[in-house]
Amino acid sequence: MRLITLALACLLLLIQYPLWLGKGGWLRVADFEAQVNEAHRKNAELIARNAKLDSEVRDLKDGTGAVEERARYELSMIKQNEIFIQIVGKGQAAALAPLAPKPAESPEH
Question: Does residue 1 form part of some domain?
């Protein structure tokens, strides 16, 4: 009787092996599900990026506003008869201070 129980326990373990560690086992399925979820997340990011790039391309093709904006901010271009005024903040003013001309000192008599 004891030999039959031991043999059945071994058969049960042999049957469980493919279920857990085999080609279509639960561990492998869980790994594939994680890979699929990662791929879906990456695809969603790429779809959002493509939509943004598509709208930017459409704007550059159809309108002049986007081209003008890029020329102003990236190339510092201005229109003819236009005055450029730059407002410098506190942090930028300290960085530009060494570049500013120093006031002339008054001569002592």
Answer: no
